[in-house]
Specification:
mainly beta, five-stranded mixed β-sheet, four-stranded mixed β-sheet, 1 helix, globular
Length: 118
């Protein structure tokens, strides 16, 4: 697959994930993706605490608005993703059990956040 085809496929995937209808009460049906957006600005996660539904696959969209690269990492989520300056990266996780999952910027470990799965 060419790089362009991979980018188009990734964007199509995100667009489809954003358009997925929610079930009754806002619940996401099993097998669908919930999308969470996290911005990195001034070397901090915004928001630093995000929530996601239990038992759903999750796409974490990391928008790095800083002029330096960052690495979105979580040992409990088993994910590592380097995001270039002024760029975006995606990490797919789940389905997850209810709980708290810590994440951090491996290039700046003072920058930490939490994913709360309910």
């Amino acid at each position: 697959m060419t790089r362009v085809a991979a980018l188009v496929g990734r964007r199509t995937f995100v667009a489809m994930a954003l358009l997925l209808p929610l079930g009754p009460g806002g619940a996401i049906a099993q097998g669908q993706y919930a999308t969470i957006e996290i911005v990195v600005k001034d070397k901090k996660f915004v928001p630093a605490e995000v929530k996601a539904p239990a038992n759903a696959r999750i796409v974490i969209q990391v928008k790095n608005q800083d002029a330096v690269a960052m690495e979105f990492e979580s040992k409990s989520l088993k994910v590592e993703k380097v995001v270039a300056p002024n760029s975006e990266g995606l990490a797919r996780v789940g389905p997850l059990k209810p709980g708290r999952y810590e994440f951090f910027d491996d290039f700046n470990e003072k920058n930490r956040g939490t994913l709360i799965v309910e």
